[in-house]
Amino acid sequence: MHDEKKSGPVIRFARNRLCALVKPGLAVDSTTLLARMLDKNVKLGTLTPKADPSGDYAFEVFPRAEVVKPGAQTELEKKALQLTGSASSAPPPADHTAYGWHVSEGRPDIFLTYCTNAQLPRNALRISSFHRKVRRFWRSTVSHRDRIKSGESS
Fold it and tell me: Phi then psi for 74, rounded to 5 degrees?
C-alpha cells in the first residue's frame, strides 16, 4: 500500500517471538525440538490459525520444518492440536493461562505460542520454556533453505 501511495511507511513498533512450552520431564532442547515435535508419541499444541495470530505463526514454522525434513509440514499440520484462540476453545480456570493450563492437563506435550504467553505459565507452573529455540530453528531453516536455493551444499 505504501508503494501505491495509499499509506505511510510500515514501521515496526512491537514484536513477539514464538516459543515452545514443554511439559516437565520431556527432554527437549534447540537441537531436538523438531524431532520431538514430529515424535508420534508427543502431542503438539497450537492456537487456532486464522482465529489468533499466534496460531498463524505456529503454522508458519511447519513449512520451514519441511526444508529440514521432507514430509514434516504435512505431519505437523495433521498432528497440531488447535487448543486455544477460537470461540469454541475451552476456557481455562480463572487462575491459569490457557497455555499453561492445557500443558498441565496433559493435552499437549509441546505448545507453540508467543514467548509472552509462555512467561506466566513457566513462572507459575515450572513448565520448561525454551525461549528463542523456535526462533533459532526458524532462522536456521531459512538459512538452510537459502543455501539450497543458491546451489550451495549443506
Answer: -60, -45
* Helices 53-68, 72-79: inter-axial angle, 10-degree rounding: 150
Rounded to a whole number, what is the largest CA-CA distance in the chain? 54
Contact at 8 Å (CB) between 30 and 133?
yes
Residues 6+ apart with CB under 8 A from 99: 21, 45, 84, 111, 113, 117, 118, 121
Length of the chain: 154
- Tens digit of each residue's pLDDT (9 = 90 or more) over 45-59: 999 999 988 899 899
**105-120, pLDDT tens digit by residue?**
899 999 998 887 766 6
> Which residue has cell 539450497?
148
